[in-house]
Amino acid sequence: MNKTYVHGYQAREHERLHDQAGALVDLLHSDTAYPSGSKVLEVGCGVGAQTVTLARRSPEARFTSIDVSEDSIGKARQAVRLAGLANVAFHQANVFALPFESESFDHVFVCFVLEHLAQPLEALAILKTQLRPGGTITVIEGDHGSAYFHPHSAAAQAAIDCLVTLQRDAGGNALIGREIYPLLVEAGFDDVRVSPRVVYVDSSRPHLVDAFTIKTFTAMIEGIREPALARDLIDAETFDAGVRDLHRTTAPDGVFNYTFFKGVARKA
Amino acid sequence: MNKTYVHGYQAREHERLHDQAGALVDLLHSDTAYPSGSKVLEVGCGVGAQTVTLARRSPEARFTSIDVSEDSIGKARQAVRLAGLANVAFHQANVFALPFESESFDHVFVCFVLEHLAQPLEALAILKTQLRPGGTITVIEGDHGSAYFHPHSAAAQAAIDCLVTLQRDAGGNALIGREIYPLLVEAGFDDVRVSPRVVYVDSSRPHLVDAFTIKTFTAMIEGIREPALARDLIDAETFDAGVRDLHRTTAPDGVFNYTFFKGVARKA
Question: Which residues of A, range 161-190, sit inside 8 Å of B by Cβ?
Answer without folding.
Answer: 175, 178-179, 181-182, 185-186
